[in-house]
Design a protein that fits this description.
elongated, 9 helices, Low-density Lipoprotein Receptor, two-stranded antiparallel ribbon, single chain
Length: 292
Amino acid sequence: MMRGIKFLYVIFLHAIIAGPQINLHHTNLVDDSENDIGTHHHYLIVEASTENKHYSRQITSYCLSEWPSKWNIQNNIHNQIFSFAELNKQNITSHHLYLWWAPIDIIENYQLYSNQLSISYVISQGTQLVYNCTLPLFGPLCQYSFDYYESDYSSLAEMIHNFHRNNPYESTVFTCYTHLKCIRDPHPSCLDWSEICNRKVDCLDGGLEEQNCWQLEINDCGPNEYRCANGQWIPSAFVNDDAVTSDCLDESDEMNFIANRPYQCYRAEPTIECEDIRCSSQVYGKTKIVLI
């Protein structure tokens, strides 16, 4: 009985101390083939926290770029480890595991185990382990932590937002578009998605990123469509409909707001307004402003 009381006390104390809720997704990997570069794994889903309340609500996925199976992870003796069977005997619910920062797929597996416990074939799943991580550790094996973490944060979104406020955006850091072969110098430079069809050859092996882009130039819009400066078309109803969120990648449909966008994105977390856009000479004149 005393063990049960102590066990529940640990859970209750964790719920009180915990600030940001950090639960990873897709941690039960089956294949970690390096060729499957498009697979999202061990990622966090966070609602963007912006100071401008007029921004559209959006969520962002923060993913690992390497497979955890390549790491040498050692067990931490300070973290409590329980099997599904032990948790069930203590009447622990999936909500408790959520408060423990357990990965979402482990929580779902435990809920399935609890629901079907009367069926004999799920009894073997009772040996699956759950790690009750000690702050600020999280993950299926408590193998992750944030360098930029303070216990008084109320949410993960707040922590990410403050990080970007204190660490101004570096415009020299780009994403790599891996679905188009491109050789460019100096190594290890790669092709960013915004450099495709930008009227400038960046790939030294034939300029594949500029091939067939002429089709955008002759793209005819329908009667109820608006042609963006980059050749993209959108429904006419989307033009000048939202001073904050544009529908054209070059933002040419919302000309009245974007003058202040570079400064706003300089100290902001990755959002659609700052990431999924493309600089346009028609919009920004001759000044080169890199936002992506």
